[in-house]
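Progress note, sequence design subtask.
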């Protein structure tokens, strides 16, 4: 749409002036003809599924948190896929899962650097929106993966699995382990995390079904995807609710810390724990009887799918509209669903019977 020189000056202008001024001067707003709204997305452009896959692109991964082993694995998947596609990978991001302003700064820096696309796991659904819209106005494709923003702030969201299925199945797993009885708590990540909050809404809805009438959610605690805070929050839950029967922790950092606390306490094997964890983190707790079962998707495949989606967008094979399909290498073909969501597939439940088959 813009010449490289104009794009460069627009990005430079955005860096030194107010975003609104830069947007006006660069005329970056595209009309969404179907809705008659101003949008940063180029939704009037048609996808060409047969367009050649572009090479030599730079795709940046911006996870919620860089020192979280889950994102290390996910982003490595993205790196490998980009290598296979002949493009370049880079990763940048905050150390803490509650540093939303840090994430905003990283988005702005990537915009100034004029990457071709970015894959972002958002700490908050709205906080990154102004920065991401500015990126899209500069021709950068925006993929959210793992944790979404509001839909208008990105081109597509690469989701680990259906959010509804993830929320409901975690309650089912705990229900079975508890004989459908007792007080339960949730140990989540950051209070603003889009992915955890969406799953928790479905958990609450699942708990309304008759089979859960004797299970009561007494509290949702937040460990902020920090090992120490998550450990302390688990300890706090058991002090506050001495009759607590079970915990769901829909975060790899949270479930590991909760397992560590339970394993060293009198509650080991008595208070049930499930949620979302990596097999590598949880293996010892499954083997020592602290945890019976939990679930997750393959994070490397999630990262790889995000990379493929970014390159397909930049190549013009997809625009983010419902019904468009694209190929993602060994992962197969994917179709974009409602609100630009692409689902990776069904998660795996890990127990002592299968955990040794999984090495991530
Ligand atoms: C943590 C993060 C991530 C989530 C996983 C399950 O690593 O919160 O966003 O998807 O857990």
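Output:
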């Amino acid at each position: 749409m813009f010449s490289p020189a104009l794009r460069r000056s627009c990005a430079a202008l955005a860096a030194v002036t107010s975003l609104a001024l830069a947007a006006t001067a660069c005329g970056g707003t595209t009309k969404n003809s179907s809705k008659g709204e101003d949008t940063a997305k180029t939704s009037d452009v048609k996808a060409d599924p047969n367009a050649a896959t572009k090479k030599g692109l730079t795709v940046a991964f911006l996870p919620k948190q860089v020192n979280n082993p889950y994102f290390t694995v996910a982003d490595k998947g993205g790196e490998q896929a980009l290598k296979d596609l002949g493009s370049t990978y880079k990763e940048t991001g905050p150390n803490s899962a509650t540093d939303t302003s840090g994430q905003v700064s990283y988005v702005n820096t990537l915009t100034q650097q004029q990457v071709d696309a970015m894959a972002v796991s958002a700490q908050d659904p709205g906080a990154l929106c102004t920065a991401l819209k500015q990126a899209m106005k500069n021709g950068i494709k925006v993929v959210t993966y793992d944790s979404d923003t509001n839909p208008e702030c990105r081109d597509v969201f690469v989701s680990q699995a259906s959010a509804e299925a993830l929320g409901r199945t975690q309650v089912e797993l705990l229900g079975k382990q508890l004989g459908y009885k007792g007080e339960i708590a949730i140990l989540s990540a950051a209070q603003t995390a889009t992915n955890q909050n969406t799953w928790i809404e479905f958990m609450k809805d699942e708990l309304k079904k008759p089979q859960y009438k004797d299970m009561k959610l007494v509290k949702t605690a937040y460990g902020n995807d920090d090992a120490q805070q998550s450990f302390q929050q688990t300890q706090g839950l058991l002090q506050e609710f001495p009759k607590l029967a079970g915990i769901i922790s829909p975060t790899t950092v949270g479930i590991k810390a909760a397992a560590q606390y339970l394993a060293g306490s009198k509650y080991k094997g008595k208070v049930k724990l499930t949620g979302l964890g990596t097999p590598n983190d949880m293996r010892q707790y499954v083997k020592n009887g602290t945890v019976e079962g939990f679930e997750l998707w393959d994070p490397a495949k999630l990262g790889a799918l995000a990379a493929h989606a970014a390159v397909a967008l930049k190549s013009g094979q997809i625009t983010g509209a419902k019904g468009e399909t694209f190929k993602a290498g060994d992962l197969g073909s994917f179709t974009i669903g409602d609100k630009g969501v692409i689902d990776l597939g069904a998660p795996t439940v890990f127990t002592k019977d299968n955990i040794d088959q999984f090495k991530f």
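The two ends are 41 Å apart (CA to CA). Work on this subtask will continue into the next period as scheduled.
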